[in-house]
Amino acid sequence: MHRREWLTCFSMLTAAGFAGCRGYQYGHVIKPGAENLVGSHEAGAEVFDPLVDEAVAKFLARQQVSSEDCKIGPDGFPAKKTICFIGIENKSAEDIGDYKDKLYNQIDSKILESQSFTPISRRMVDAALHETRMRPDALMLPDNMQLFTAVLQRSGAPVDYFLYATLTSGTTKRNSSTQRDYELTLELTNVHTGAYDKLSSEVRKGYHKSAMGKIWNYNPLKR
Amino acid sequence: MIRCDPSRTPAAQHRAAILLAIGYLLAGLVSVSQSGCSTHAKRIAQPRNLFYDGQLQACRESLEKLSKTNRHDRDVVNLDLAVVDLLSGQAKQAETRLKDVRDRFDHLEQDSFAEKTVSMWTDDQVRSYSGEDYEKILLRVFLSLSNLMQDGMDAESYTLQIQDKHEQLAEQFESSSGKKKDEYTPLPLGFYMRGMLREATHHDYDDALRNYAIASNLLPNSEPLQWDLARVQSGVHSQPGHGVVYVFAMVGRGPYKVEVAEQPTSAALLIADQIISAVGPYKLPPTIAPIKIPDIVVPPTDVDSVGVQINAQRIGPTSSLANIEQLAISTFQANRNSIMARAVARRVIKKATIVAAKGSMDKGGLTAIGMDLAGIAWEASEAADTRCWGLLPRDIQVLRVEVPTGDHQLQLSPLSASRPVGPSQQTSVRVVDGQNTYVICWFPDARSVSQIMCSNR
Asked: Which residue(s) pair with A213 in the sheet?
């Protein structure tokens, strides 16, 4: 090998060495009202925030209209209904990871802010589940319901309603594109009468292997 | 760099060439004395023996000394130190160390062309070590365990990080191998721990079911996992007045890397040819002498599980959830050809450099000998990269048992083919109503000193 060739090669290697360095990680605070990131592989804030907003808004609107079982308080005004938010069950195709507790808090806070209900603290709900050793999905059995509400009542939190939230999904596939419909359902059960109400909200989302997937599959001129 | 200046006399050129050769030789010898021939495997041998002898304090001192003297070993030595801390009751210190290494590994996962280039002129030991895939998962598993030994406040976060890492590794697997993401085999232990913690909330049985189901699919023959699945489908965490004891048993001595000299495989030569063609006008020689590469060693063990007794009542043996031996071997086999190819490419580049340097000077006999000696020293300074998390067990096993609340005597015995093969260890555990109590034990073999840690002691 000629010396010049060798020197050229050495220079190339050295230049490559100085050119590539490890980067650092940076962060920034997202301003209120700014767009959320759209998850490329699964649902995130862009799906869950509107799901919760819509479901809770529908739920509160309907409960304010229906006042057939409204109790009158000692002051002569309608008494607030006491609601026990049992939890969220994830039946969707995705693991929602740390979003589960966030969703619980989002729904719980919105109900509390509405002033239409008196929610029971999650810590009290957890303590009652712990004490009775009941599964959340087994509380609708009459004996279990009676025991569970009795424990909460003993703790100073009488219950009028149980609220369950369920996250479900439906998946449609077309070649390398996938559409997933996320649905959040709120189910309210009156523990005194057994009457129940149910409503839901939905967000649809598309996942594509290429940047053109969205245009190709959701082109308004198509079909 | 020496220049062949035609105005200089042949005698002056000859002297300059000899000086350069001596310079190379000295540099090579210094390199050999500092790092060449010495590998992580050799440096870690003494602390490892101290650890298995049960001399945790001496082992810690030896590892700390190693961490200070060898910059490139620091991260893996910190992992070993974290294990020593955890088993000597310093869970907080272990967690801190593991968090540092986790962040370092995350940073070092990015490619550095500078290191890649330098490693072509020296050896793979100068490259920063960002951990094998299974080490990255186990690091987070140990973070969870360290936290559970304290208050368990961050344990759920660490189990979420295990899932994130699995997801990331599966994506890397898809892009590097061209296979589908679903074909990546994750570590069942991470899913099991997530399920275990979600079940302990008494309300997130759906999460527990999802995670146990994944672990069960990965280990379809594990009977305890089937019990866990059945329990979270229709049962409860524990009956009123009862709590749960989880025994995490570290069984056997884990795998580690050693340096071996091997003949390059044809697959490795193919990759090496691509590397050297990319960096310059080099060609592979028709034959290559054996090259130094790392290899995995799994020490023999006479313990295959741990028998658990509570208050002298036999409960059963622990069940495997992380076969580290198998993971280490399969991970190494997947990377073996690339490691070998880099070693071949390095040899070709070094030889070509010496030849080019000799060609640039006069061809005097003494100069040529000097250059050849320098070349030999340069190649001899090369050593295989044997860095790895050395103080891992061969297998991580778990047993779950529901017991009434209160204090209980827990007895753990090393088993081989279901028969006790060594002295038992006893500890007292306090079980709290509706809560989990965690016990970590390590049985390297029937003779070595075993360690037991309990979360509520």
From this structure: none
Q: What residue segments make up the domains of chain A, in order of their start?
A: 45-217
Cα B327 from Cα B135, distance rounded (Å): 9
ipTM of the complex: 0.76
Interface test with B, best of A10, A11, A42, A178 (most B CBs within 10 A): A10
In 10 A of CB A21, how many CB atoms? 13
Tell me which CATH code domain A45-217 carries.
3.40.50.10610
Full-model pTM: 0.81
Does the distance separating the beta carbons of B236 and A90 come in below 8 Å? no
Separation of alpha carbons B25 and B375, rounded Å: 8
For residue A96, what is the nearest residue in chain B, using CA coordinates? B207
Amino acid B2: pLDDT: 37
Residues of B with Cβ-Cβ distance to A134 under 8 angstroms:
236
Q: Closest to A21 (Cβ–Cβ): which among B112, B240, B280? A: B112
B359 at interface of A, judged by CB pairs closer than 8 A: yes
Q: List, as one string, the DSSP characters of B123-187.
A: -GGGSPP---HHHHHHHHHHHHHHHHTTT-TTHHHHHHHHHHHHHHHHHHHHHHH-S-GGG----
Cβ–Cβ under 8 Å, residues B87 and B451: yes
- Contact at CB, A129 and B202, closer than 8 angstroms: yes
**CA distance between the termini of chain A:** 65
pLDDT tens string B316-370: 999 999 999 988 888 888 778 888 888 887 777 777 777 777 676 655 677 777 7
Q: What is the pLDDT of residues A87-134, one digit of tens each?
A: 999 999 988 888 999 999 999 999 999 888 889 999 999 999 999 999
Q: Where are the domains of chain B?
A: 10-131+237-454
| Both tokens assigned to B236 | 């409860």
